[in-house]
Write a structure and sequence with these properties.
This protein is α+β, with helices and mostly antiparallel strands. It is built from four helices and eleven strands; from the N terminus they run αββββββββαβααββ.
Length: 268
């Protein structure tokens, strides 16, 4: 299990090595796109246009493929939370089942992902798909893996998309740990049955948070380490988002007192 560094922050050793193969593939795709070999087509994200549609394609670009990282909890790296009864839920702030029953603290966050069909030009919702989300807690620790929270499974959950292709999770704003921009991981599955069987992932990606919102949240109690860690980072230098984050940057509304909503359109 992962330990902590001298400042008590979770160590995420092995994460970069785990990330490199996927990141290399993604950068190759973008290099090919720059040479005109692969069409990159934009679509809306959270109600805002990320990029102009390409005349060479009638569709829109799928959500960029990213690493699941070393703490997915989907059976690919040790534990598998997806087969636990109770994983299908909208409130992911608490642990469930036979786990310790802890609750993650932090500024309230609602995560709303809208899954759409890329081949339709982002115009057709993917009803009946499923999304698994997970992220670190306020201290930067991942349940099931990080020291002190291996007995917890909070901040992980699955939802089936509704008729609008939408899933909504109630959570808390994640912390910022050394070396990574604040983010939420997610996997898209063709159906709820596939998700709870932990099989047939169609897309794996990550959601990024805007800097101004991170700065505001990290000025509140309990996020002191995150504020320090964020000070040495940028989206442009992040190992995942550094080669382009237009399609992964959440549209944010809300306040620290009332909570925030992070919205992202996910073409698949």
């Amino acid at each position: 299990m992962n330990g902590r560094d001298d400042e008590g922050l979770p160590e995420h050793g092995g994460g970069l090595a785990h990330d490199l193969p996927v990141l290399a593939r993604r950068r190759m795709i973008r290099l090919m796109a720059g040479a005109g070999l692969v069409p990159l087509v934009g679509c809306t994200s959270g109600g805002k246009t990320s990029a102009a549609p390409s005349a060479s394609s009638a569709g829109c670009a799928e959500i960029p493929e990213e690493t699941a990282g070393p703490f997915p909890g989907d059976g690919s790296n040790g534990v598998n939370v997806l087969k636990e009864s109770g994983v299908v839920r909208s409130d992911i702030t608490r642990s469930f089942g036979d786990f310790a029953g802890g609750t993650a603290d932090g500024v309230p966050l609602t995560i709303t992902l809208t899954v759409v069909d890329a081949a339709s030009g982002c115009g057709t919702p993917k009803r009946g798909a499923a999304v698994y989300v997970w992220h670190c807690d306020r201290e930067g620790a991942y349940s099931l893996y990080s020291e002190g929270v291996t007995g917890e499974n909070y901040l992980r959950g699955v939802q089936e998309t509704d008729e609008k292709g939408r899933v909504t999770f109630r959570s808390v704003f994640p912390g910022c740990y050394p070396g990574r921009w604040p983010h939420v991981h997610f996997e898209v599955y063709g159906s709820l049955a596939d998700a709870t069987a932990a099989t047939s992932i169609t897309n794996t990606s990550q959601l990024a948070f805007p800097k101004d919102v991170c700065d505001t949240v990290y000025a509140t109690d309990g996020y002191g380490a995150s504020a320090r860690n964020l000070g040495g980072l940028s989206l442009e230098d992040d190992g995942v988002f550094g080669d382009g984050h237009d399609h992964q940057l959440a549209a944010m509304t809300g306040t620290t007192g009332g909570g925030y909503t992070a919205a992202l359109t996910v073409p698949v």
